[in-house]
Design brief:
The chain is of the alpha/beta class. It has helices at residues 27-38, 53-60, 74-83, 120-133, 145-157; strands at 4-9, 12-17, 20-25, 42-47, 64-71, 89-92, 104-109, 134-142. It has a single domain (26-157), classed as 3-Layer(aba) Sandwich (Rossmann fold). It has a 5-stranded parallel beta sheet with strand order 6-5-4-7-8, with helices on both faces. It has a 3-stranded antiparallel beta sheet with strand order 1-2-3. The termini are far apart.
């Protein structure tokens, strides 16, 4: 079980998982999460709960019918319950082990440590699993997606 710590500085929260800064609650992060929510529609699956910022915005979006969040660590949800309300339906499960019988209009991911070329394999793994869970004409949204897709296109063009 990972060690999860939440530190506060002024109005902001910072979550460390096993000593690594994994997520934060800052105005910039809220804006990024709000933008993801605005681009979502239909039945939405979110990989990773975080602070619940994204699910909260998704629920407010009239184009979104349902929000299911898959979170690997129960302890994160427990910490968030201590801190306030939980948004959306939360399933404690590893995203990569999800059954592929239910399909979604949008899948949103933020389950790699950073937007860096060394995490491209993590993004590709997420993308492949998401494609199996996506409805026809569905959309994958992800933290760093544009950068990771750029790297993938660069690899293709250099062949």
């Amino acid at each position: 079980m990972p060690k999860i710590e939440i530190l506060r500085h002024k109005k902001h929260r910072f979550m460390f998982i096993d000593g690594y800064l994994w997520m934060w609650d800052t105005p910039q992060e809220r804006k990024l999460q709000e933008d993801l929510a605005k681009n979502s529609f239909g039945d939405v699956l979110v990989a990773g709960y975080g602070y619940g910022i994204l699910p909260k915005f998704l629920i407010k979006n009239p184009k979104v019918k349902s929000v299911i969040v898959v979170e690997k660590y129960k302890k994160i949800i427990e910490k968030m319950k201590e801190d306030g309300k939980i948004y959306g339906e939360v399933i404690i499960y590893d995203f990569y082990g999800l059954p592929e019988d239910r399909k979604f209009d949008c899948i949103i991911g933020d389950i790699w440590p950073d937007i860096d070329a060394k995490f491209l394999k993590d993004y590709v793994k997420f993308k492949k699993k998401s494609q199996k869970l996506l409805k026809k004409n569905g959309k994958i949204l992800a933290w760093g997606k544009d950068y990771f897709e750029f790297l993938l296109n660069e690899k293709k063009s250099s062949r």
